[in-house]
């Protein structure tokens, strides 16, 4: 792992655990399954690479990123089915890794959902603000100023759950060093595919954490070996998105989310207009500014709602996968080692 301000370090100082994954060790069926998964992931990462840098940190791009993540996690479920690799044949280490990673992902989702909920609460202040602007009463203008102050303080405050994401992401990065697979061609395909899933997951989650916290410390840069079909697409995506986010953060802009920044710009424009009441000469300019704020606030509200649904969908996807694995462990008798099920259920 390396962060933007640190030198790049290889993930596998003791050798590449995927060195045995080659066409000479796989049957034609397994090779097709592996290549199909990787080619699909490469295409998905390529589509996620924004054509315009202004798309980065917009709700539309973040929604697309979360949708992409859900699709990739669904693909790994499909791959496991096609591999015909029942849970009873899984190595205990694979199960441990899966349970640890999934519970960390649930924690990350909860942090993101709490931040989206917090931003939605800020919308209530905006709606109150816009309502007060419908009257010329000086008393209501005082309330409007109070709402403006409240909103600005709200959006500039920090969410402890998002701040803690850095620790969770570090755990996910450590999980990239997957358990060694011996005498199982299907296991090698599964571990290789899981590596791709986790790389995309870590990337998307680190971008979200950086966007919500306004901190470049949440950004992660991963070195991916060229042997993976999707490595070039991932490197291009990471370079493009992380580079633009770093530029935004280094400029001192906050908030950094596009729609939130647009609302904040309107608020800053309105604030001096209502300090001592609106001058008759400035009435038209004032009304235009209020209308502009209303449009931007509505766009922000819609973006928050759509992104919240996608984060919730990802949470449910991860949770359902955990439930399915734990259920299979119980029915297959793998739960004879109580440590496994204890590790899986108690942390949830």
UniProtKB/TrEMBL annotation:
Highest taxon above the source species: Eukaryota
InterPro entries: BPS1_pln
GO BP, one annotated term: shoot system development
A UniProt-annotated Pfam family: BPS1
Protein's name according to its UniProt entry: Protein BPS1, chloroplastic-like
Lineage, broadest ranks: Eukaryota, Viridiplantae, Streptophyta, Embryophyta, Tracheophyta
């Amino acid at each position: 792992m390396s962060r933007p301000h640190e030198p790049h370090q290889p993930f596998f100082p003791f050798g590449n655990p995927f060195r045995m994954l080659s066409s000479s060790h796989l049957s034609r069926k397994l090779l097709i399954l592996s290549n199909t998964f990787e080619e699909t992931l490469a295409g998905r990462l390529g589509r996620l690479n924004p054509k315009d840098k202004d798309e980065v940190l917009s709700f539309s791009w973040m929604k697309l990123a979360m949708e992409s993540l859900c699709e990739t996690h669904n693909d790994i479920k499909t791959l496991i089915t096609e591999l015909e690799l029942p849970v009873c044949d899984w190595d205990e280490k694979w199960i441990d890794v899966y349970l640890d990673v999934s519970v960390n992902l649930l924690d990350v989702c909860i942090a993101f959902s709490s931040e989206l909920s917090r931003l939605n609460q800020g919308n209530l202040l905006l709606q109150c603000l816009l309502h007060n602007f419908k009257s010329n009463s000086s008393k209501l203008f005082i309330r409007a100023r109070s709402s403006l102050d409240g909103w600005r303080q709200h959006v500039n405050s920090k969410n402890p759950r998002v701040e803690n994401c850095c620790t969770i992401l570090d755990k996910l990065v450590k999980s990239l060093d997957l358990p060694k697979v011996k005498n199982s061609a299907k296991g090698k395909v599964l571990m290789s595919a899981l590596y791709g899933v986790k790389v995309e997951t870590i990337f998307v989650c680190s971008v979200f954490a950086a966007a919500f916290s306004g901190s470049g410390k949440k950004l992660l840069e991963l070195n991916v070996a060229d042997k993976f079909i999707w490595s070039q697409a991932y490197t291009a995506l990471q370079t493009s998105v992380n580079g633009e986010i770093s530029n935004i953060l280094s400029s001192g802009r906050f908030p950094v989310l596009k729609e939130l920044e647009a609302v904040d710009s309107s608020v800053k424009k309105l604030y001096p207009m209502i300090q001592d009441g609106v001058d008759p000469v400035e009435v038209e300019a004032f009304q235009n500014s209020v209308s502009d704020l209303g449009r931007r606030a509505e766009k922000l509200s819609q973006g928050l709602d759509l992104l919240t649904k996608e984060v919730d969908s990802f949470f449910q996807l991860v949770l359902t996968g955990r439930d399915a694995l734990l259920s299979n462990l119980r029915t297959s008798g793998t739960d004879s080692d109580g440590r496994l099920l204890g590790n899986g259920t108690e942390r949830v």
